[in-house]
Amino acid sequence: MEDIMKILRTINEMKAYVEGRRHKQIGFVPTMGYFHEGHTTLMDHAKEENDLVVVSIFVNPLQFGDQKDLQTYPRDEERDVAIAKEHNVDCIFIPSVDEMYPYEMEINMRMNGRAKRLCGASRPGHFDGVLTVLTKLFHIVEPDQVYFGLKDAQQVAVVYALISEFNFPIQLRGIATVREEDGLAKSSRNVHLLEDERQVATALYTTLQAVKQKVKQGERDIDTLRRHGHHLLTENGIEKIDYFQILSYPFLDEIPTVEGQVIIAIAVYFKHARLIDNIIVDETGNELDHI
Ligand code: AMP
Fold it and tell me: Is 236 exposed, middle or buried, given 0-12, 13-18 or 19+ CB atoms closer than 10 A?
């Protein structure tokens, strides 16, 4: 650990920081800020497993289709910097949009397959934007290990493809979802929930657990499990379901029965927020808690 946390805002500064520390193992946690325990858990894991931890905060316009969502995305840099310090982060990289994208990118990344399903279907271009910013950040930070939350398991699957298909010399770590006491996955977007919605939102987790229980009891038929999940969400007051899906993981292919690793994934709309949650289970219903 180094004494004072560095706050860097330019790509050149960030590259110079890494250049002087080539002998150290670097753990990198890319984020969009507004830290909660989900983020700090990633920082803590990175700290434990590396010599240095670099965290980035960048609300990446390329991955937002909806401009209102981008504009209202919660931000609090001062608080984030204080939290990162508390978690012994060594360096925090906070580039501006102009720094990352001085002009409109002329090269577009476009991913098919697993990036087109689940959230990729309702947020066209989202994962292409994620891939673009991560490709840049991976080149700038040159980490040995990168840390992502399984809360966004599709993102983990997409990053896994990026790293393996483009041969980044980086180890991917997927960390278990951090939840509130009642099971709601911690998310920066939870602040947008209205009071009554906050109660209803627990249905995401209870539904995932109930469907997992069915798998444990021996139900393998995906159609049956999906109908059950849909029914539970509706019964518990979720009015607008984007998807309730069970797919192979990490390829996210449609499959008729639970075999090997599958993701049980939910996305729902509330008035001002779209929430997602998932669990990854094997065919005996055992939940995977890291990758
Ligand atoms: P974000 O700032 O929302 O882009 O998230 C940054 C990283 O934190 C991503 O890898 C997320 O998957 C991860 N993350 C967000 N919420 C949670 C959570 N509740 N538990 C674990 N990881 C999380």
Answer: middle
Closest listed residue to residue 274, CA positions, set 123, 60, 114: 123
pLDDT, tens only, 155-200: 999 999 999 999 999 999 999 999 999 999 999 899 999 999 999 9
Query: CA end-to-end span of the chain, whole Å?
Result: 26
Strand partners, 267: 243, 276
Distance 141 CA to ligand 1 centre (A): 19
Tell me the pairing of strands 6-8 and 91-93.
Answer: parallel
Cβ 129 under 6 angstroms from ligand 1: no
Ligand 1 centroid, distance to 73 Cα (angstroms): 14
Question: What is the reported pTM?
Answer: 0.97
Q: Which amino acid is at 238?
A: I
Residue 178 Cβ inside 6 Å of ligand 1? The answer reads yes
Q: Is the CB of 126 under 6 A from ligand 1?
A: no
